[in-house]
């Protein structure tokens, strides 16, 4: 996707919203389905057959997290009802998609993040679990948490509050692969958590937590060059090098 | 569950045993099914439809670990037969449940641990794999080990001997998420292994192994305040802080 | 399997090739199916019903990586067609099997590695994803990568090139459990990556990367005794100790 | 269930409607779940976890009719959306449930008909297929028809219009087991079609079609005693005898 | 299988019993698995991995009759417990297997009948449903009945009593394909019910019911040559001709 | 599809062959996927992702006939290998598709017949079972036959030889729903078998067998007007009436 497609004026909030992202996702999926017949069935069932982002996301999460004792239809219903009753959850998902797309050079498309980023999917499902937790529906929150940990190997305690607009996925990510976030810590907006990290403390906004147990790098109090790097203008290799540079 | 429900006299060993824990688990599941209809089907199929803990655990492990080439009915049979032929395996599961419930503040109920703690489930399945291993049924032990690693992302070599009464789960745990325990090491009773740790050496009783590769903290020779903290009287936040304190 | 069965003259390349390894695998599976009826169905469906190694591997990967939205038959077709069109992929798998069998003392049989080593299976599926990536079939490469990460908890970016003949599995491995390999790094032949490691830099041949982020140990420039240890003559315990020695 | 529970005044249409039937179904399911733990999981997932009859029916049909290429979540969505957009479909289902419960002595409860009567389930799914057909969404109508025929062995062409309030199930039934209804015939209200019948002609209201090809018995023009028999006061045996009497 | 293998002295009841039939089944399955690798996995999972006929039959019925809302493990447990608590059910299955093998020329082996005869499998599952029915566990009996009708397209009301030693399968059969047996009728020992028949009346021993609704042919009061035909000495073609002769 | 699309000169055998039918099927599926997003995933997985008709048919049959003990990948392989080794099987499928499309007014498209006609699918799978039978691979033939009977409720003994170019489906059909074809009878080219029929005798070419047991109508020796009716010029209703006319 040419960078131009992502450009839009900050003032036009409507264009930046869910409708715009959903239109991008469908266009990407249609293009990929056309180019790759072997993937078309998957793209139609997960994206192109749905009338809205919240249905597509609920469907995908329901099918990812289901088991022989927790049926996909039950989970689909739970996600769809929760997303419908609290629009802030979908707004957070859209913010996450946009942040990943704009700042993570490995995120080649919105649909790639929606379908394949374990950190993104784990985070959206976690927010539903967190909402159930604060509604005192704890057994359901814990059952959902258990499935998130099983399927995505990302372990975020339902009591943990996770902000929006973070980076997800494997390369850098709000939440890297095999990350563990414990207890009632708070993960700030735009924070990042390295793969395999175990987070036991709050992570301030735009700060990175890495290691086991995690220590903080970057952020306002621990300045690093990472925040200054515009995702779009950065090639993948140099990003990797820079990241490993400032971590070690 | 009020703390009082967990109180029992040390002298009445019968009350403390499997029957008492199983009665607690059924009562918890009945309460949760009543409060949360969306979870009731799951709770009936995994707990309330079963006549004993060993059937419930065998059913749950069989459904968790099955695949298209290793059927749930075959695994259910394997677990049920092994638990029936060696009562020490179920006694170990009961000890694990009681230890987690009493000492892990994140463990809100026995049924939560039974259904959702990857470390707990991985450990029970591992003990069956270990038994097969020492019976020289190694191909079956290795196939079971492979499924445990796939599903729970916890990798304990079948040759490793794991003691009883440990802490499980995400917060602190005999066995944290994404832990790896290699070769013929010995994990002592009440030991803990941090999330993401790779254990290559014996972990003495009541000692914690953390990091990759794991180093030991706490225990008789490395005293820490963790052992002194009574689980029931400790709130989650402070526990987290204390834990991260003594690790770093 | 007695060591003698693995002995063969270096000059007879035909004997060492795919046909010989496949014959070994079938013989092992037949022996294990005979000894363990509970495992026979699994061994017949994954190995003994197939006419070639590439069919067995395609079947096993298809069934491991399938989901409700990516059917096993579709993935089986994808693997079988890719292995058929590029023989170097199967040659690499054979080299990996032989390296694991000869140098990893925990690898008790070829069939054990083929069926149960997450690192081995993740690596074979990754090579197919990498091939799709360099053919610019990126959406399919990323979807496959996502399934590899979900199922094996091993995260290798499709852009990463992975050499052949490495060590796999849990004990030591080209690719340990919960390993993450990012971006367009290069993993050299015979390299090893520790469990839970996050690799951001190239790993030269016969070098080991461990930790998060990974640092290099061993190799030509960082000599260690590991390379000198003949796998067959080493018992499991001492290997573990040696490994933990040189890491810490 | 005592007959008294079914008594209600004809004038109180509200009581007779969907809400009343749904309340009965939930009460029956709760009673059966209490009495039969082995069935409780099934009853909670199909009935007790749902907030309305249309959700329960959509869930049950979705799970009955799904296949590896037509996912349960997709079908659940299709049924729920269609039932929501056309309330007459659910009203027809309620009329069918009440007719079966009042007139078929083999129908021991509403929930039994809802969960287990192939004729009832096939007819509700058929009405959705028929609606798609008259909306010119024929490929979807035919795909749904194909699944209905596969799963329920009841073959009703999507062009056929089926009235409401018929008898379903095995003993006497609007639609008996293995029935085939072809082309654009019309099945009148309260008509019955015998097991194994092949219907090629219109079946007037309150008329029975039996045989292959089906001939008509009973009805206004072919009076028989069947219509006069009050279902509630009739025991199963005598009904069977009477039925076989008037057929032969 | 040579006819000689089926020969046994009437006096040695032990040899004729379950143990002997089970030994035959295992021998047949081993022979077929050897000859047909593509079928070996199926034969091992359904027969050769089991320690007894009742486990094999419970496993096969559980996997045949399961659905996404009625799990195979639950059904396996139900069948195994019921067969264990009432040995007459397994004795009836053995009698059915022996009758089919001795008198039905299309029944080429015991294992063929056990695995593939819909009539045989429907009848064994029906006897369990019938037992639940007379124990007043009617909701479970009806749910099981519903699955039997869905999967085998054979509809036997749980109230119907079915004798032992009948002929099953497609060619002639106690219970032919798409048969319907209603209400509390009684099917006598050695009776036969033609494919597609709808049985509303008692079928005396060694009598055949055919047609829709079924009429009786053969039996003590309606003598026909069918009973006189020894199954083993009859070739398939002539049997077919004879059967169609006396029906038409 | 306008009739014109089906017109082609009889002399151009190439156009009429597999390639032409496969092109039609893909065009129809593409049109339907475009018009009906809810069906697109199904159409891509079953048709549009495949490179040939034999792969599409093998995939569809494998997914239709699989069970938890007979995996879809195994069946896909069996169908693909058999279709590849004997081109006459695919030629017969093409002839069946063309006959249904040209003569059955209910067959609205080739893809509808390929995906949804139980008679068509049962017949193609039966021909593979029949081939296995005459190759003396009888246990596999019988296992496949059992699955065909379970899934399609169409029971054709593997010994029966079925000709090509027949009519399939529900309205008129070589093989109607719930048909049973026994023993080594021969079903001639262009013959039809009514729904629910039980065929015990040979059915000559272009003859219809109806009833239980089936009697013959039409054909050279029993002339009827059915053969004279050109399928394309006949509307569905009149066809139904005519059919029911000549049957009764």
From TrEMBL, chains A, B, C, D, E, F:
Its Enzyme Commission number? Answer: 2.3.1.30
What Pfam families does this protein's entry cite? Hexapep (PF00132), SATase_N (PF06426)
Coiled-coil residue spans: none
Q: Does the keyword Transferase apply?
A: yes
Is Transferase there in the keyword field?
yes
Annotated pathway: Amino-acid biosynthesis; L-cysteine biosynthesis; L-cysteine from L-serine: step 1/2
Q: Which region ranges are annotated with the description Disordered?
A: 212-233
Q: Which InterPro entries match?
A: Hexapep (IPR001451), Hexapep_transf_CS (IPR018357), Ser_AcTrfase_N (IPR010493), Ser_AcTrfase_N_sf (IPR042122), Trimer_LpxA-like_sf (IPR011004)
Name this polypeptide is given: serine O-acetyltransferase
Q: What's in the keyword line of the UniProt record?
A: Transferase
Per UniProt, residues of the Serine acetyltransferase N-terminal domain are: 21-125
Organism superkingdom: Eukaryota
| Species name | Prunus mume
